[in-house]
Amino acid sequence: MEKTFLSLLFLASLLCCTTNQAVLLTVSPSRSQHFIEDSLTLSCEEDGGSATWIVWRNTTAGGVSQCGIKWGRQHGSTCKNSMALRSDSGVYWCESSEGAASDSIQLNVTGGSVILQSPVHPLMEGDNVTLSCLTKTSFFNGPATFYKDGSVIRNVPTGQMTLHHVSSHLTRMDSLCW
Ligand SMILES: *[C@@H]1O[C@H](CO)[C@@H](O)[C@H](O)[C@H]1NC(C)=O
Ligand SMILES: *[C@@H]1O[C@H](CO)[C@@H](O)[C@H](O)[C@H]1NC(C)=O
Ligand SMILES: *[C@@H]1O[C@H](CO)[C@@H](O)[C@H](O)[C@H]1NC(C)=O
User: Which residue ranges does the record assign to the Ig-like domain (predicted)?
Assistant: First the structure.
């Protein structure tokens, strides 16, 4: 059997405590992994506040820096990176001029032909989560195998799997889409 695509990826979301953050950093497309040259929109979403939030990041190559200086364009509380590079992989968060900050999210930009679409924010116990293999242009409809801690948990014919009512045991998942 020929493997057209091979990717080893994981759902890094840990089940954790409920956070009551005043501001939430979201990313569009809404996933942790991204392709090179993807256009990313990072938005700081605040409940009812009027502060302006700046997106900051910490990357291996560039260290800690804010959007609009050496990367991205900041407009209001939104930062746009119109062409993602591998070196954009890192930890991202929102910060106000008063120094308040959101929780951070990990974004990875990979050079592979298939990625795993998995949630950016931590899951809560009992959530349903759908994991999908994704190519640059569409969902990947070929067969996929999902692993948890190295053991196969499911083989699916169409590159997509939903886990119902996730438990706190779910901490790390790998997938092979081919
Ligand atoms: C940035 O990331 C590096 C490497 O992971 C870490 O050592 C450093 O403490 C981080 N800096 C901040 C301000 O988070
Ligand atoms: C992103 O890459 C870092 C460093 O290679 C890794 O530790 C992390 O788990 C990756 N996260 C995702 C969601 O791929
Ligand atoms: C999860 O999926 C089940 C079965 O489809 C559904 O009954 C339930 O309402 C879903 N739970 C949430 C939190 O969406």
Answer: 38-110
